[in-house]
Every structure is written in C-alpha cells, then in structure tokens.
Design brief:
The structure is a single chain. This protein is an alpha+beta fold. It has eleven helices and 43 strands. Among the domains are: about 170 residues, Cupredoxins -  blue copper proteins (Immunoglobulin-like), CATH 2.60.40.420; about 170 residues, Cupredoxins -  blue copper proteins (Immunoglobulin-like, Sandwich), CATH 2.60.40. It has a seven-stranded mixed β-sheet, with no helix packed on it. The protein has a seven-stranded mixed β-sheet with strand order 34-33-32-36-41-38-39, with no helix packed on it. Strands 4, 5, 6, 8, 10 and 20 form a six-stranded mixed β-sheet that branches. Helix 9 runs antiparallel to helix 10. It is globular. Pfam families: Cu-oxidase_2 (PF07731), Cu-oxidase_3 (PF07732). InterPro entries: Cu-oxidase-like_N, Cu-oxidase_C, Cu-oxidase_fam, Cu_oxidase_CS, Cu_oxidase_Cu_BS, Cupredoxin. Keywords: Metal-binding, Oxidoreductase, Plasmid. GO terms for molecular function: copper ion binding; oxidoreductase activity.
Length: about 750
C-alpha cells in the first residue's frame, strides 16, 4: 500500500511525510473494509439446470430485482503446453458438450448438445468463463506471432462414423453430406503452406485419431485477425454451425521500415493502437482495449419421435419457428437441441436456403445470445469481428437505445398475431436516428490504406473486420444486424432485422475520454466529431509509440484523412505486373428435381462450363511467382468466394450496367424493393484497392434469367512462396459440402500444362 502511494506522490511531484502516509494508508484500509462489507452488485453465476442462468452470464441487482445481462467476454485463450523459442504447442479435443443457449423468442434457455472444440490444457483457474469446457459454444482463442511454429494436436473423441470409411464413401456421391464425425482444421486467412500437416484441408481426422498440425508462420506474415474452423468436405457446415469456430490472432510489434522506394511500410498497426492508462503524469501506455468477437449462427433443432425438426406453424402451414420444449417446472422432460443432419425427412434443415430465417434462431457472439458490452463514453476500442456462421449476412450497425436497459421479455413469436422481431427492436432501439459511426481499419485481417468511417458494415460468412469503435456519450446502445436486401441473402429474400447485443456506456472516467471537451474549439471541417476525435487520439498515440522519422511519417499520414499506409504489407498489383488471367462462375443446377448440383465453372459467359467438385481432379494449375487477374461472376444467386493461401486485391466491381460500384460516390442502386423503391446496397462501398481472402459475388439472377443480372468482380493476386494443392470454394458452407468447390495446385515455374 505504501509503495503504491509513494509512486503516486512521485508522479504528482510532491513529498508526504511518513506519518502522513501511515494515516492515509489506514484511512484507505478502513474504506476498503467498509466497501467489502457491502452486498455485491454483480456476480458470476454457474450454469443452472432449470435454464435461469447461462455460462458467462452476469446477474445484476436493482431494487431487489435480478435480471440477466450476459456480460460479453473475449473467448478463453488457448493454453499452451509448451511456449518457448517461438514454438507453441496446443491440444484441442473434438467432443460433444452439453449446455444451454438463451432463446429470446421464449425468454428461456434451451438445452443443447453439440460438437465442440475444447482446450485439453485449460484449467479452471485460467478459464475466462464459469465453465469453458462445458458451456460456451466458441472455440479457444489462439494468439500467435510472426515467426512462431505452432503445433496443434487435434484429438477426435467423437464416436465412430461408418460414412468416413473410404470403402463406403467411394460407393456414394462425395458431394452428399457425410462423415459428420470426421474432421480437420483450416486456418482461414493465414499465409502458410497448404500441404502435409500444415493447413491441409484434404485430410480427414476420423473418430479415435490424433493428428498434429504444424503451422510455420513466416517472419514476414502480417499481424491481423484470422480464424480457424473444420473443413472436412461433407461435414463442414454441420460442424461450424455447431460452434466449432475460433479466433486466430496474429499480433506484432514491428515498426514501419523504409522500402526501396523510400516509403515507410510493413509496420504492425498493433503498435499504433496504444493509449495512456490514466491521466496521471508519466502514466505508461498500453494496448487499446480489444473485443475479440466471433459471430456464429448455431442452428440447433429439437426432434420429434420420427426424427423430424419440431416446428411451430400458422394455420396455413407456414413455418413460424423451430420449437424446443424448455419448461422450468419439468426440466427432466425438456428437449435437447442437436445438429445431426443437413435435412430431415421433410426436407427441413441446414441445407434449406431459408432455414435460418424460419428457425428463428439468433446470432451468438462468443457463444452468448444477446450479450451486453460495458464501456465508457469516449473510450476507443478495437473490435475484431469474425463472421463464423455458415451462410447468413450480417449488416452491422450501432443505434442509441430508448431505455437504460433493453427489455428481455420473450418475443413469443409462436402465433401470427404475436409481436415480430422487427417490432420488438423498434420498441427498444432508436432505429429512426442516425447510426453511430465507426472506423474500419482492416478487412480479412489486412490493414486498409486508410481508416474508413462508416455507419454500417456488411459481414458475409468468412469475413473479418477490425473496427475502432467509440460511443460519444453515456447511455445504452443497440448492436443491430439490420435488414438485408434480397441479393445479399442466399435465399434471395430480404433478411429481417435482428438484435445482436446491447452496450452499457458509462460516463468517462478520465478527461481524455471526454469527446466534447477535447473538441471544444469550433471548426469548419466536414469531418464528424467522432472522426476528428479519433484522429486526435491516434496522433497522440503515435507521439507516444514512435520516435524520430518514423513518428513524423506516421503522424503525417494520420493527418491525411487517417492514412494507414505505414502499416500496409502488400503493395498494390499494377496492370503491368499481371502475367495471366483466370475466370470463375458459381452456379446451382436445378434442372434435375431429384439432384440439385452445386457447381463451379472455369469460364464465364460463352466459356461457361460448370462442374461439381471431384476430389480426384485438379481444376487449376497455377505457377509459383505468377500474378493473375481473376474475373468472377455468379449465374444463380449470390455466393461468397474464398481461396486459400494467397489473398487478393480488389480492382473493380461492375454492376450489370458496367458501373464500378467500388468507386467513391458511385452507388450500387440497381435493386428495387416494394413499390419499385430504390435500394442502395452498401456491400462494396470503399472496397477499391482493398485486400481480402473472401468476397461476395453478387448476382440479381433468377432461375429464368441465369446471366443477365451478374455483377463482374475483378481481383488480382500473387502466388508467393508456397506450392501444393488446396481449394477455393463458396463460403456458404453447405454449398461447399455439396460440391461448390475446386482443387487448385500451385507448381514450380515452367511446370504448368
């Protein structure tokens, strides 16, 4: 206590006598004892079998009334068995876990039993949740650095699955979902080798098998937000939908360095994102607060005696919701939600295009549904958002809330005259007010050339965004997944608005977080208050984090519309660098009612020739150190394109009239809604020149006009360092499981044939 007091007095520049110190210390101890005797206002609670609490929940006491707010936490950090000399060893089990998920439609917790990744090295004292191994359906967070060798031991503890056996599988269509208990692991977005026991998705780790992956992360790998998930063809969607998804964060501390052209590049933005830990003189700087957020669509179902999904229907037979019995008075007879097939005998299930909307399930964040964030006004936070769902679009927005704490009354959407989800959100979130702006600094783990201010961001399956988020004043806010237009949904129908989470924002605890006092001087700038505040704070951070010429360069760039060019790792690909061209089109062949084919074509327009996936066929041979320009289209619905190993840079995206909708000021406004109302699609806004590994291939096509509404996406990529076989595919994962995938092989120069 005395040492802590002495440090504070030295920081403030005055001296206090020893006797005075003892008196003050005694007073402080008395205060601590008084506060310790008072009732706790919030406490962590374990899982309750009657469905009243949930892992990771917090109970808040107000006027003798308790209500659950499910405080958000970052996923638990995977524990290393050995971490030295740039080597990290992790042990993950694949096993069933039984727990509960909150169902806002009923206001109760549904019992669920799902396949999960669990950390074999986790200890109760280290777990960040009340019971990480038995509760939260999100995988442990893996944190690595450039230059690390990561050994990931995967132990499949699931029961035997006869469909995984080669002798059985060979007799069946490989594009029929199968081998639900076989698995593997894909490091989505990492620039590492795709072969052997590295990021090899062409292996199957069957039940009872242990396998060690070895990921050698190069020293020149960018820091950023990546993720890992199963990629066993035939079972990917089922396992990812169960919550087998984890954040994979590459952290770096490299300063920008001068390249051959005299420009400073290849710094880690982690170094810039620092802040003073208090307002005291001489206070150290530390990392900006990070929220690592895995967004999932866990589509569990409860089954009747015939193995069909239990549903609630209206009088006309329309499915209103998937049903699970959850009765607090009779918990032993409650249903248990599972994910054990792609479709039931009636055709309902994961592979049905509209099943997510019909199920009335809710997007979870780090395994929690409708969690609460807690922060303070003016505090800048880094939100690392990962769309780890299997299909549906998330249109992220922040709105002020109408009440201090959002009501958690059940929606009870069981009958046609009950309140809709949209009505419920309208009653609690001020959707008629402008959304709170935020700044996107990275897409798919790769830092942008400039921070982009926006009031919404689209996340398709596989997307990641890093955003700097700051709430301007105290109060409550809604984190919303706003309505998506038809072309943004794989079902080709608009998606309803959903509540993702709520945010409790307290008054600022330091003067540096008071936005209004920090920007009290009038200005003629057209920049928003949040933009000016963020620029001011990042410049302050740069002054603390850098020295000499590097500091001058970083500050100069920040003053230039928040340019982040010193933190860019991949130089632009110019047209004169291109050595070859590739074409690709996605397609769903519905001509045979008994067998829908999910296909990829190596040509577009007159060269269109789609085929379903064949594991024995190499679809593309590409040359190491080559630079290709790819032209991408879709001729039946819209699909997210994902390619392993090497990222790509977006050159242009042309709507069916030929307008580049990535250019500043150009709106994507071809689509029409009710009463022919114009719909502005923000999907591609600000994407010109951005580097990504997953990209929505938009189409306004219908089965009767299969090519007239196709958008044309042009990207460029370099094939650097790594050779071997890997895949590209649609990241609607049940489409990939059913054949919308290709094998790609990168070979040494002069070996392409």
């Amino acid at each position: 206590m005395l040492k802590k007091f002495e440090k504070r007095e030295q920081a403030l520049g005055f001296y206090v006598s020893t006797s005075t110190k003892l008196i003050v210390a005694a007073l402080i101890m008395v205060q601590i004892m008084i506060f310790s005797a008072q009732p706790a206002q919030a406490q962590e609670v374990p899982t309750s079998p009657n469905g009243q609490n949930s892992p990771g929940s917090t109970v808040e006491q107000k006027s003798n009334q308790f209500r659950i707010i499910r405080k958000i936490k970052n996923p638990p950090i995977a524990q290393t068995r050995r971490a030295k000399n740039y080597e990290k060893v992790y042990d993950l089990n694949i096993e069933y876990t039984q727990s509960q998920l909150f169902n806002p439609r009923t206001g109760k917790y549904d019992q669920v039993k799902l396949r999960s990744y669990t950390d074999a090295n986790a200890k109760p004292s280290l777990a960040e949740s009340s019971d990480q191994k038995k509760g939260i359906y999100v995988a442990p967070q893996v944190i690595v650095s450039p230059g690390d060798t990561v050994r990931m031991n995967l132990n499949n503890l699931l029961s035997q699955d006869y469909t995984c056996q080669d002798s059985i599988a060979k007799e069946k269509d490989v594009n029929n979902p199968h081998c639900f208990n076989g698995t593997n692991l894909h490091t989505h977005g990492l620039w590492i080798s795709p072969v052997g026991n590295s990021d090899n998705v062409l292996v199957s780790i069957n039940p009872g098998v242990k396998f060690q992956y070895e990921f050698n992360i190069p020293l020149d790998h960018p820091a950023g937000t990546f993720w890992y998930h199963p990629h066993r063809h035939g079972a990917t969607a089922l396992q990812v939908s169960s919550g087998m998804v984890g954040a994979l964060i590459v952290k770096g501390d490299r300063l920008p360095s001068k390249n051959v052209n005299g420009k400073y590049t290849k710094g880690d933005i982690d170094v810039l994102l620092q802040e003073k830990q208090s307002d005291e003189l001489g206070a150290p700087i530390g990392p900006m607060k990070e929220n690592v957020l895995v967004l999932q669509q866990i589509q569990y179902a409860c089954l009747d005696e015939n193995g069909n999904i239990k549903v609630i229907k209206d009088s006309g037979g329309k499915i209103l919701a998937w049903d699970c019995k959850s009765d607090d008075s009779d918990p032993k007879n409650n249903d248990t939600g599972v994910i054990e097939f792609y479709k039931d005998p009636t055709g309902n299930g994961l592979s049905k295009a509209a099943s997510w909307q019909e199920s009335k399930r809710f997007t979870s964040i780090n395994g929690l549904i409708w969690p609460t964030f807690e922060t303070e006004a003016g505090k800048i936070e880094r939100w690392r958002l990962i769309h780890g769902g299997i299909r549906n679009t998330i249109r992220l927005k922040f709105f002020p809330a109408k009440s201090t704490l959002i009501s958690e009354e059940p929606i009870n959407n069981n009958t046609t005259n009950s309140p809709s989800i949209n009505q419920y959100i309208q009653e609690n979130c001020e959707l008629d007010k402008p959304p709170i702006p935020f700044h996107v600094i990275a897409n798919d783990g790769l830092t942008r050339s400039k921070a982009r201010e926006t009031n919404e961001s689209i996340l398709q399956g596989g997307y990641r965004i890093d955003a700097l988020v700051v709430f301007p004043k105290a109060g409550s806010y809604c984190v919303v997944d706003d309505q998506t237009q038809a072309s943004g949904s794989i079902s080709q129908n608009p998606e309803q608005v959903q509540l993702l989470a709520k945010v409790k924002v307290d008054q600022p605890t330091t003067t540096s977080h008071d936005i209004l006092s920090n920007l009290a001087k009038p200005t003629n700038s057209q920049e928003s208050i949040i933009h000016r505040y963020l620029k001011k704070r990042l410049i302050e951070s740069a002054k603390l984090a850098f020295r000499g010429e590097v500091k001058e360069v970083v500050i100069k760039n920040l003053k230039d519309e928040l340019s982040l060019s010193p933190f860019i790792w991949y130089p632009d690909i110019e047209e004169n660098e291109v050595t070859g061209h590739q074409e690709l089109a996605f397609y769903i062949d519905t001509n045979n009612a008994n067998k829908v084919l999910f296909e990829v074509s190596n040509g577009i327009r007159t060269r269109f020739n789609p085929q379903p996936y064949d594991p024995k066929r190499i679809d593309r041979q590409l040359e190491l150190d080559g630079v290709d320009e790819w032209t991408l289209q879709s001729y039946f619905g819209s699909h997210p394109f994902h390619i392993h190993v090497n990222p790509f840079q977006i050159v242009k995206i042309l709507d069916p009239t030929g307008k580049d909708v990535t250019a500043e000021g150009k709106l994507d406004n071809l689509e029409r809604g009710k009463n022919n109302q114009q719909i502005i699609d923000p999907e591609y806004a600000g994407f010109k020149g951005v580097w990504k590994d997953t990209l929505w291939i938009k189409s306004l096509n219908s089965p009767t006009s299969p090519r007239g509404g196709a958008y044309t996406i042009v990207v460029r990529t370099r094939y650097k360092r790594y050779i071997g076989e890997f895949v590209l595919h649609c990241h609607i994962l049940d489409h990939e499981d059913q054949g919308m995938m290709e094998n790609v092989n990168i070979v040494m120069p002069n070996q392409v044939f």
